[in-house]
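Appendix B, Record 12. Input sequence as logged:
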Amino acid sequence: MDTFEKLAYQEGYKVIAGIDEAGRGPLAGPVVAAAVIFPSGYYNKEINDSKKVPARKREILYDVINREAIAVGVGIAEADVIDRINVLQASLVSMREAVLELSCPPDFLLIDGLHRIPFRIAQKPLVRGDALSVSIAAASIIAKVSRDRIMEMYHRQFPQYNFLRNKGYGTKEHRDAIKEFGLCKIHRKTFHVKSLNVNQTSLDLF
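Logged structural output:
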């Protein structure tokens, strides 16, 4: 899980950040990205792709990562941004913001996925990077826990959608709630209005 970090150090880079995002697929809520910089040689066998880590364990690792990392940054692209520029571009925006939030500027980026971030910084996209790099895996955990906490806050504002349980994903319960109550301000209008036959007038109800 630290092979790509070691390769970057061997090439002469000093400060390596792993970057990942959470929340590209949901019908509601933001995309949240995180960037994590660990000390050289850092390894923790418990840090893995957030999808493979149980929720309670993710919470514990969230604290471990924040404590043991040199720097952690988080970036957020809300639903209106996703609707305006599409979810891929919003993901890249949130990743860029996460890097800018780092207290220690990196000189090399390891990025989960296929796409580079618009930066003049050396970088390497890695498909399934959250299973290949401890820095990216840590970023995936920070992003996932951060987004879940945001959705839990939105649940208090919009309890009819049960964001506490579905975190904005398109479960049957969530889709049924959209049909009954319409869309609230954190729904991604470009994702599902046509498929759910939601009346456009419902967009301003909440």
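The two ends are 44 Å apart (CA to CA).
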